[in-house]
Design brief:
The N and C termini lie far apart (about 55 Å). The protein has a single domain, classed as FAD/NAD(P)-binding domain (3-Layer(bba) Sandwich). It contains eleven helices and 26 strands. Helix 1 links the parallel strand 1 and strand 2. The radius of gyration is 22 Å and the shape is globular. The protein has about 500 residues and is an alpha+beta fold. The strands form seven sheets. Strands 1, 2, 10, 11, 12, 13 and 26 form a seven-stranded mixed sheet that branches. Strands 17, 18, 19, 20, 21, 24 and 25 form a seven-stranded antiparallel sheet that branches.
Length: about 500
């Protein structure tokens, strides 16, 4: 049996951060079900839409969704060193201050996390107290923007949306160019950023290594069992950073979950923690509000989607988002125009109220789970989605877009009335790839993990990935996962956390 201080399950975003930070003075094992990236398309930021469904994707799918025309939604997740940061669109958005403050968990407010956002970053733009330099994550802001995107930015102020400098400054609402994790023109996954040659030399890296169980002695988790029969022992802690889907499944297979459900699958109950797998929620986008262009749309120099525009809807954080994409984007329900002939305004909303769950299909740890995000089952989400479509069409038909817009293809002028527009959005809805919540942290008895990220009901077992988020942040979640893992590394190493701080409001 191989012995380490910490065994980290998952070499995705959180696992890469933890392995780098904990291994400076501790024996660390990093276990990944996939392998090192080998597909050359991964490095090209323009190829991200083509990566889904390949060998390094878990290729999950939801159960039929009653509020999206009973469609099954593909849920790509990275099965590779770097996890889903190998598949994503490389956008880096921290989220709104209120996203973290409303978690209500001691130690996890925006001010608590802000020093860790800075610690993680190497910002290449103008010097600002809102940005860090010298960190592992290389951040660039799109510039100059595609001419179509520049027109889109000009359209926003005509709707009362004032420009902002970037998504990670004092304001989030308004038009701006995206901040991207690109270095030297290539995708920088979180593993690229954190698992440097020096880090790789000092950790025990186990790849193509599927974890099929957790090892316990009485109430204490002491290691993990791999599919090849190997057991890796942890003297201090086992940390599940396997991602928002795999982590709750590992807990349930270990007998940590809702007791009656586990018994029905003939899994021995170790700890009755009913919230494991519950509270699943995710961002939805629409594919989409598509326009035929008056002239050929040149390809992006960056990654097709050069701007996310967030807009207020009455709450503290902006709740609507529209992405300007220089290629046509549609779901399987529609026929896409040719690339170069059309562009898309993808509309979505930031704070869904619908809550679903991840459940086990069987006691077999290799069986695909049952994923039910319960998309649009809350009426408030349907209203928000329609408001997002209204905003996208207002932008798309604004005067600065006249030189680009030949005609609206989807939903098109024939799609009128709330019922018809909602039916269109049910078919246009697809995941923004941001699942959170299935191992929620908190101080209440219903939480799966406490503020120290320790799993309730057992010892020596911790969770650190997007599944611990009590509620979703505004925008892509990868930046927030990095900051959470940075702070968690201090907690796990028993180092004093950074002093809470953030710049004063302008």
């Amino acid at each position: 049996m191989t012995v380490f201080d910490h065994v980290i399950v998952g070499a995705g975003t959180a696992g890469s951060v933890l392995a780098a930070r904990l291994s400076t003075d501790r024996r660390v094992a990093l276990v990944e079900a996939g392998a090192a990236p080998s597909d050359t398309d991964i490095a090209d930021p323009l190829r991200w839409p083509m990566l889904q469904g390949r060998a390094f994707d878990w290729r999950y799918a939801t159960v039929p969704q009653s509020a999206t025309a009973w469609r099954l939604h593909a849920w790509p997740r990275g099965k590779v060193r770097g996890g889903s940061s190998v598949l994503n669109a490389v956008a880096h958005v921290r989220g709104h201050r209120s996203d973290f403050d409303r978690w209500g968990v001691p130690g996890w407010s925006f001010d608590d996390l802000f020093p860790y956002f800075l610690r993680s970053e190497h910002w290449t733009g103008a010097s600002s107290p809102w940005h860090g330099t010298g960190g592992p994550v290389h951040l660039v802001q799109v510039g100059p923007c595609h001419p179509l995107v520049a027109a889109y930015h000009t359209a926003a102020p005509s709707l009362g949306l004032a420009p902002i400098v970037d998504h990670n400054g004092p304001a989030l609402a308004g038009p701006t160019a995206n901040t991207l994790t690109i270095k030297d023109g290539r995708r920088q996954s979180t593993a690229d950023a954190y698992l440097t040659t020096a880090v790789m030399a000092r950790i025990g890296l186990f790849e193509d290594a599927l974890v099929v169980g957790l090892a316990f002695e009485d109430r204490r988790c002491v290691g993990v069992r791999l599919a090849n029969g190997t057991t890796l022992r942890a003297e201090r802690s086992v940390i599940l950073a396997a991602g928002a889907i795999a982590t709750p499944c590992l807990l349930m297979h270990a007998g940590i979950g809702e007791a009656d459900t586990l018994r029905a699958l003939r899994i021995a109950v170790r700890a009755d923690v009913s919230a494991v797998g519950r509270d699943l929620h995710d961002h939805l986008l629409s594919g989409g509000n598509v326009y035929r262009a008056r002239r050929r749309v040149a390809p992006s120099r960056w990654q097709h989607s050069e701007s996310l525009l967030y807009a207020p809807r009455g709450g503290a954080a902006p709740d609507l988002v529209v992405a300007c994409v220089v290629v046509p984007v549609v779901t399987e329900a529609f026929a896409a125009p040719a690339v170069g002939e059309a562009y898309t305004l993808m509309a979505g909303f930031s704070h869904p109220r619908s809550r679903g769950a991840v459940r086990l299909a069987s006691a077999d740890p290799t069986a695909a789970p049952l994923i039910d995000p319960a998309y649009l089952t809350d009426p408030a989400d349907r209203a928000a989605f329609l408001d997002a479509l209204d905003l996208a069409q207002a932008l798309g038909h604004a005067a600065p877009m006249d030189d680009w817009r030949a005609e609206e293809i989807l939903p098109g002028p024939a799609c009128t009335g709330r019922v018809g527009r909602l039916r269109f959005m049910e078919h246009a809805a697809y995941t923004h790839h941001h699942p959170v919540g299935m191992c929620r942290m908190g101080t209440d008895r219903g939480a799966v993990v406490g503020p120290d990220l320790a799993v309730r009901g057992v010892e020596g077992l911790f969770v650190c990935d997007a599944s611990v988020f009590p509620s979703i942040t505004t925008g892509p979640i990868n930046a927030a996962i990095i900051a959470v893992a940075e702070r968690a590394s201090d907690l796990f190493a028993r180092r004093a956390p950074a002093t809470p701080w953030s710049p004063p409001a302008p």
